[in-house]
Automatic annotation (TrEMBL):
Subcellular localization, as worded in the UniProt entry: Mitochondrion matrix
Signal peptide residue numbers: none
SUPFAM superfamilies noted in UniProt: Nucleotidylyl transferase
GO molecular function, one term: tryptophan-tRNA ligase activity
CDD domains noted in UniProt: TrpRS_core
Keyword list, A-Z: Aminoacyl-tRNA synthetase, ATP-binding, Ligase, Nucleotide-binding, Protein biosynthesis
Protein name listed in UniProt: Tryptophan--tRNA ligase, mitochondrial
Length: 343
């Protein structure tokens, strides 16, 4: 069987982009998994700390994300759902891996390079250096590798933006195996599972992605948005003044974004949906998209509101998940300690 691992940061209420681009794929994976497959879904609080967080908000987001996963259909009996920060095996393994990670590899990470570029642009007049950035931002790809390797995971469903990080995980698995594991392939070399990549764009600026960090709240639909909010945000979404509806992401990003959203809701391709709307107006497309999104989010929204008020239940699920995660990873770590000479 496969060992599938994926993680998501506990940052705010997920938006439609997070849901269609990432979380709904987890549910599909769970549904289509073979009985022998093991699934681990982790809420990765330690990764969230690489950026400044308000402690109270982070604590709330941590629970909200767990409630979200349950609300969208992750089944805690079938899958191991847990908070990364409840399982110290991740940090212990990350430390051990950091001792065999060449710094040059971390410097080549595009995520690091873009952080560096950002801090340069923020521009002090002093010569630019790394001193403004924290070490966690530099080393978190190692922690990601540890997240995966602690469960000796084989299959990692992530977006294309994570390809380089997964490549690092593969290298670290290889380095560890070569250096310490007499029994070759102690760590499996993880494979990227390419989930259908649907990029949902901002409703206000369809040249950029829908994102939680945009200051314009009208640009995104949250999993908790009411029926009327969904309607008004989609009705006010930026499209174009071209007559009729066609799927043309380059020239008609706003219109095409609505088609992408509607297609995701009805499990079709945007082109298929577009062919039904050729002679129709933006108004009709918007109305139908709003209805489809409402239909999609209604169940999860209601479940989310219910579950997030059941604090005792959430605490119990988190505890069970952490116990199951720890049970698996502590077996890995026991062997790792022996292999490196710390037993
Ligand atoms: P940010 O504001 O930093 O961009 P975000 O919540 O919009 O944050 P991430 O936290 O970077 O996005 O991503 C969480 C997951 O959701 C990732 O798997 C990412 O690929 C996916 N995702 C985020 N935004 C979108 C989007 N607009 N369309 C499709 N998938 C998305």
């Amino acid at each position: 069987g496969r060992v599938i691992f994926s993680g998501i940061q506990p940052t705010g209420i997920p938006h439609l982009g997070n849901y269609l681009g990432a979380l709904s794929n987890w549910v599909k994976l769970q549904r289509n998994a073979d009985p022998e497959d093991e699934l681990f879904f982790s809420i990765v609080g330690w990764h969230a700390l690489t950026l400044p967080q308000d402690p109270q908000e982070l604590s709330a987001s941590r629970m909200n994300m767990l409630a979200t996963l349950l609300a969208i259909g992750i089944d805690p009996k079938r899958s191991v759902v847990f908070h990364q920060d409840d399982n110290q095996c991740h940090t212990e393994l990350a430390w051990i891996l950091s001792c065999v990670t060449p710094i040059g590899k971390l410097r080549r990470m595009t995520t690091w390079k873009s952080r560096l570029a950002d801090s340069r642009n923020a521009g002090s007049d002093s010569e630019v250096d790394e001193s403004l950035l924290n070490a966690g931002l530099f080393t978190y790809p190692i922690l990601q590798a540890a997240d995966i390797m602690a469960y000796r995971a084989t299959h990692i469903p992530v977006g294309e933006d994570q390809t380089q990080h997964l490549e690092l995980s593969r290298e670290l698995a290889n380095i560890f195996n070569r250096t310490f594991a007499a029994r070759k392939r102690f760590f499996p070399i993880p494979t990227q599972v390419n989930t259908p990549s649907r990029r949902i764009l901002s409703l206000r600026d369809p040249t950029s992605k829908m994102s939680k960090s945009s200051p314009d709240v009208q640009s995104r639909i949250l999993l908790t948005d009411s029926t009327s909010k969904i309607k008004s945000k989609i009705q006010a979404s930026v499209t174009d003044s071209i007559l009729g509806v066609t799927y043309d992401p380059v020239n008609r990003p706003g219109t095409s974004n609505l088609l992408t959203i509607l297609a995701a809701c009805t499990d079709e391709s945007p082109e298929e949906v577009a062919s039904r709307y050729e002679g129709k107006s933006h108004r009709e497309l918007k109305a139908d998209t709003a209805d489809a999104v409402e239909e999609l989010l209604k169940g999860p929204r209601e479940d989310f509101e219910r579950i997030r008020n059941e604090k005792g239940y959430l605490t119990e699920i988190a505890k069970q998940g952490a116990d199951r995660a720890r049970e698996r990873s502590s077996a890995t770590l026991k062997e790792v300690r022996t292999m490196v000479g710390l037993s």
